[in-house]
Design goal:
264 residues, mainly beta, OB fold (Dihydrolipoamide Acetyltransferase, E2P), 3 domains, elongated
């Protein structure tokens, strides 16, 4: 791959020509390309990587940091191909512009699962699982993992959060710390369910993000728990138990002040 500088203006790159950029005959995952940003959309950018070859990069794959999509992006950048967007003969590709992935893509893909866990130890603590998504896909997520992402859409069906390349998870309305999280917000969540169809459910509630998710196997008689009254049914209060997805019932007479207190 070569890049030819056609002209300069005040010691800065003014125009570049991509020479020998792969794309016309197909580009294998892991290939490095010079990408020209041609248009920015709400959740991604369109790139040109050859004379007639184009690519798409998700906002979460634009930088090692989760960048604000409104932030200024250099027009020309070095990227790594993640795959073909829609078929072997298509000239539209998926690309990442993250410098660390451009540098380490092949090493990451060649790592054993054990070595990769060591490599991403710090990422597992802060929820940045973008490289994991590229290596394993959504199957790389499991219950109780912290995962960071950017809100793509927040509607009645829940909050949809992009956490990596081709990876979107959902937080149901009952699992949001606040209901009106705006699009493009950066949020930290915890995985609470991985469904058989691959859909991943997460929680943004502080009690679960901070303390982790407790299952029924952790529940026992005389165990002290906290929770929030979310409604009433007959003479019983419906309580969402903190750090769990468990709904419990409490007799109204066992609550000191059911009309004024929200916590039990």
């Amino acid at each position: 791959m070569e890049v030819e500088i056609l002209s300069q203006k005040e010691n800065s790159l003014y125009q570049m020509k991509m020479i020998g950029c792969p794309g016309e005959t197909g580009t294998a995952p892991g290939s490095q390309v010079v990408a020209k940003v041609v248009k920015a959309y709400d959740n991604h950018r369109r790139l040109q990587i050859g004379d007639s070859a184009f690519a798409k990069v998700d906002d979460v794959e634009c930088d090692d940091l989760f960048v604000n999509p409104d932030a200024e992006t250099p027009q020309y950048q070095l990227g790594v191909v993640l795959g073909n967007d829609s078929g072997k003969e298509s000239q539209h590709f998926r690309v990442s512009l993250r410098p660390s992935l451009v540098r380490d893509y092949q090493a990451i893909m060649d790592m054993s699962s054990k070595d990769f866990r060591k490599h991403e130890a710090s990422s597992l603590l802060n929820g940045d699982l973008r490289s994991r998504m590229i290596k394993f896909g959504p199957a790389g997520l499991s219950v109780n993992m912290l995962v960071m992402g950017v809100v793509q859409n927040n509607c009645g069906k829940g909050c949809f959060i992009r956490v990596g390349h081709d990876a979107v998870v959902r937080a149901q309305p009952s699992e949001l710390q606040q209901q009106d999280i705006p699009a493009q917000s950066l949020v930290l969540t915890r995985v609470i369910e991985v469904k058989p169809n691959g859909q991943v459910e997460v929680s943004n509630r502080d009690s679960i993000v901070v303390n982790g998710l407790l299952g029924l196997d952790k529940m026992a008689v005389n165990l002290k728990v906290s929770g929030r009254v979310v409604g009433f049914k007959g003479y019983r209060a419906i309580v969402q138990v903190d750090n769990t997805r468990i709904i419990a019932y409490v007799n109204v007479e066992d609550i000191d002040d059911p009309k004024q207190s929200l916590n039990v």
